[in-house]
Amino acid sequence: MKFMKLGSKPDSFQSEGDNIRYVPSDLATDVIVIIGDVRFYLHKFPLLSKSARLQKLIATTSSSNEDNEIHEEDEIEIAEFPGGPASFEICAKFCYGMTVTLNAYNVVAARCAAEFLEMHETVEKGNLVYKIKVFLNSSIFQTWKDSIIVLQTTRALSTYDEELKLTGRCLDSIASKASIDTSKVEWSYTYSKKKNLDNGLRKPQAVPRDWWVEDLCDLHISLYKRVISTIEARGRVSSDVIGEALHAYANKRVPGFSKSSSSVQITDVSKYKALVGSIIELIPDEKQSVSSSFLTRLLRASIFLGCYEETGLMNRVGERLDEASLGDVMLYDVDLMQSLVEVFLKCHHSEEDDIKAKASVAKLVDGYLAEKSRDSDSLTLQKFLSLAEMVSSFPRQSHDGVYRAIDMFLKLHPEISKSEKKRLCRLMDCRKLSAEACAHAVQNERLPMRVVVQVLFFEQVRANSNGSSSTGDSTPEITPASRSTNTEDDRESWDTEDIKALRGELASQRLTKNQQQENSKGKLVKGGGLGVSRVFSKLWSSKERGGEMMSSSGTSSPGSVNDDSKSSSSTSKKH
Predict the structure, then answer these.
(1) Of 104, 152, 161, 568, which residue is the least packed, with the fewest Cβ within 10 Å?
(2) DSSP of 308-358
């Protein structure tokens, strides 16, 4: 930090309590200057030699006291003095020639006080106003961090400062340095982001483009807005760097923006609502200037402050919902999440190039539902279905996420009926489950039995297909005699022993396949697949014997849990 020392005499100001300041001298004090609640007992001569305003005030006071023979000291009271007693004391010490130190923290107050007291060159050469101007121009405004400190101090002195245009000078100084080519940055700055390491040694780092953003985070929002606007007006800083600056500021200043700040006690809600509104106003028009994570966290903060409906963030977040992470949206309630998906659908309703975006939103919603299912109070069956069905047509490479969400809901809501379980399971396409998800599903007693059978069927088909491709043999497709039932008694209609046998055959087949691949490198035992086929035949035949065969009643895809048989001819396909 830059500083400047003025005067050469020792500082002999002394205090008596908290409200009296005086200069010990053989000469009696002849003027009392009252600033706020502090009384200064001083001498007229040193003050009058440098302050035109004190000359006028003392002259006026003396003339009014001419008839008072017992008056020994003139008393001057200044109700509003820039910087208060501290800045007046700096000016008084300068008048006495005592040592006084100016720095970034007190220079603005001293400058305003000197201007108020009219300590100009016309009164005495080398007066205080002149010396402070030199200090500001040669040192303060040439220094990055000192310029920021000085700008902060101007807020408390805005009434006097604006006339002197010190705020504008600070803004220009800061904006010019933030806009400079990074290769020319030679001053120190705060930058807490992780540096790259190589073999434990720190690599030489080029100055990052956003080197300046953290140093501005301590500014009040009123000053921060002016700084960012001034930087943008210069046109040399890209919009994404402005976005980084806003992210850093929000992270430090906005309650609820980060998880750690969500527990902060808010005493002035209106203040923070205005803060969020100001940050939103500063977001550049370019879409990619701020990340989706920034927007979702800002929306979360506005929810925390109770002002999200006023901010207009819903459309911004919903439009870019495909870029959001699960952690970003977990604090949103189900109704808000549904509203965000609705906004996304309006923005991405038919474009072919939105396939990837829709797949990302589907994955996000699947994860959201799985996590929200842990809260049995906030996520009802109807809300689960409503949100899941909004993205049911979205492309997915796998339905593992859908299965996980359904399974988690069933686990935390054991009270739901069989028909309700069926409604949930219709969201899932068993053909798109991974081998790991299938292995879990076939052992999952929370699923309706019909779903378990379908999973087993497609797992067996996949296993036979893999075996056929490895051995060169073709295995006939196994098609169930019937895949539809409209009764509520699915679980009771299947032979439990057959289900257990089927699970065992599949497990045996996988084990045999793995062993053969290790020992014979590709030679597979074909008996496992055939055994499973026999169990399937027995399973469907027993269903026929029970009189539960139903004609086709739907057109759903073969993998959906509400699939019906395509035609009666399929019933004749058996091993």
Answers:
(1) 568
(2) HHHHTHHHHHHHTGGG--HHHHTTS-HHHHHHHHHHHHHHSSS-GGGHHHH
> pLDDT tens digit string along 304-341?
888 887 778 999 999 999 999 998 899 899 999 999 99
Q: Give the residue carrying structure tokens 């008694």.
A: 489
3-state secondary structure 91-140: HHHHHHCECEEEECCCHHHHHHHHHHCCCCCCCCCCCHHHHHHHHHHHCH
**Residue keyed to tokens 């200037």:** 289
Q: Is 77 helix (H, G, I), strand (E, B) or coil?
A: strand
Residue 34's DSSP bridge partners are: 39, 77
pTM of the model: 0.76
What's the CA gap between 104 and 146, in Å, rounded? 6
Q: Whole-angstrom Cα distance, residue 389 to residue 427?
A: 7
d(C-alpha 115, C-alpha 120), whole Å: 8
Q: For residues 434 and 429, what is the distance between their CA atoms, to the nearest angstrom?
A: 11
The DSSP bridge partners found for residue 22 are 14, 41
d(CA 547, CA 487) in angstroms, rounded, equals 13
- Tens-place pLDDT, residues 390-410: 999 999 989 999 999 999 999
CA dihedral 377, 382, 383, 387 (to 10 degrees): 150
- Of residues 49, 45, 51, the one with CA closest to residue 78: 51
Q: Is 141 helix (H, G, I), strand (E, B) or coil?
A: helix
